Amino acid sequence: MAGTITLRKSAAGTPVRLATGESTAVRWLLIGISLTFLTLFLFLPLAAVFVEAFRKGVGAYLQSFNDPAAYAAIRLTLLVTAIALPLNLVFGLAASWAIGKFEFRGKQLLITLIDLPFAVSPVISGLIYVLLYGIHGWFGPWLAERGIQVIFAVPGIVLATIFVTFPFIAREVIPLMQEQGTEEEQAAITLGASGWQTFFRVTLPNVKWAVLYGVILCNARAMGEFGAVSVVSGHIRGKTNTMPLHVEILYNEYNFVAAFAVASLLALLALVTLVLKSLIEWRTRVQHDQEEPA
Amino acid sequence: MSIEVRNISKRFGNFVALDNISLTVPTGKLIALLGPSGSGKTTLLRIIAGLEQADPDANGQPVGSILFHDEDVARTHVRDRRVGFVFQHYVLFRHMTVFENVAFGLRVLPRKQRPSRTEIADRVHELLRLVQLEGLAGRFPSQLSGGQRQRVALARALAVKPRVLLLDEPFGALDAKVRKELRTWLRRLHDELHITSVFVTHDQDEALEVADEIVIMNQGRIEQVGTPDEVFHHPATEFVMHFLGDVNTFHGRVNQGTIQFSDLELPFPSDRQEINGDARVFVRPYDVTIDTKTNGLPALEAKVVRVHSAGPLVRVELLTKTNQHLTSEISQERFATMNLEVNSTVYVRPRHIRVFASNGTGSR
Known about the structure:
The structure holds two protein chains of two kinds. In chain A, 74% of the residues lie in helices and 1% in strands. Chain A is mainly alpha-helical. Chain B has a six-stranded mixed β-sheet with strand order 6-7-8-3-9-10, with helices on both faces. In chain B, α2 packs across α3 (117-130), α2 (98-107) packs parallel to α4 and α3 crosses α4 (146-158). Chain A binds chain B through residues 183-184, 186-194, 197, 201-202, 205-206, 290-294, and chain B through 49-51, 77-80, 82-85, 87, 89, 91-96, 104-105, 108-109, 140, 142-146, 149, 156-157, 159-160.
């Protein structure tokens, strides 16, 4: 979370230096370094996307979206996200609830497995699915017999996206559930609530901001995933291209304005995500301050 | 609704929390489970509630029973036992208002049994009035003081008309003054509602002041069950005597009808044959009389070490000639007549002693 610098004022109104604070010079140095870093690696690239997208004017910018292939790519991205997000929400909540509220053998293993998609390179994540469901994969013949195509088709893209975005929701919710413990749930069952009632009325509302935060991150990654989707997609124009893949194709065809135009949509998504993230962080902090013991 | 616990045991790993406990709580009484940490009192309370299960025997067969009136609920799930439970740290639902907290038990009732919205609202307001928190229905727990939160917790537990009310160190998290106020308030509430109640505490003053009966527990066993009067003035074991109130301890010997300890020799009735030989003698501070003269009676000579006169009684710390530390409590009036100072010599006499044999068997 972004920190804030507070300068205390003494009775005379002059800033008082805290014994544990850094000197002003050090503070500004650190801020300066962070800002330079952010500018070089974040602000400039983002700005460049928009500059390049509008290089030939607003007309050319809008023309980029008139392309049926672009339209199909946007639709596919939205479709994949609309499937992956709710599924990961259910999986994530179920895993968090089990880990946060219960003791069982293999719990630590489950926690490690949940973190797996973060550790694995996205290309490998995609390759796993090709090896499992591709024509020459483990289930290849079985699927071919039934005329089901997973790899180089939409189902494969959905699977790969689910895999790489799975940890986001679980990782946000698990620590919170662990910290909150099971006391409120115990209180609920002494009052006669069933398991479902306890989950929906007590457990879930207590973690709603963490869930929302996780959903936003999951959404951003689902829409922007490149590596894993690239491996399983087959790059069939108009059929199995998501937005990130489409940007790559456009760029390789030297169609820079269109490429950056589509990319600007993703950049916008990034900005919206950041804003929502900050709003939630602010909201959580407010709620946390309110919960300080009286 | 009486509660009867039969043959309940519980271990956590190698630690024995409860050792074959059996206990009866009469209908409508408010009883206290009193004991130090680790005595098993909270475990017992939670087993009665159903939040923990008693251990089965070596073959996995269930052992023991918990009877609410004559119904064995040991294998009933906690949500079906209809107990009201109040936690030490209130455990209010943090994202719900006071109203929603109290209404919770009623709202989760199965469709058929659930009262209408107006009925629920009426009941909630009635309970809030009972706990003197009317007008706070719209607040959130984070906006309440500790004492207020605990009263909401109580109202919430009472909303579903429980058969039995169980409180786990209900005032443990509050500061001293609020604790005292709520203690009195709880007693009055009980006198009004007459729900069979069990509360756990490690604070003996609380138990002595509030409960109809006290169950003193130690290391997973029950040491004594009795009214506050009984356990205080007639402790059955050394542990009970030590735990309830301050006590002065002496090592002595019982010999042919007398008990000798420190420099004193007092008559000891010979009908108490079970004690002979080494014994421990206990005297409450208020039973240690101080005099500036011996008056011809057997007494211990002692020096005043410290005087604490701020309080309803004066506590005098003494050191006997035999190098034994003693504490005495005398009234302010008595203190005023004697003019005691540090290093004054005085003569102390125990008015009432309790003797336990060094092997633990008690007397007197």
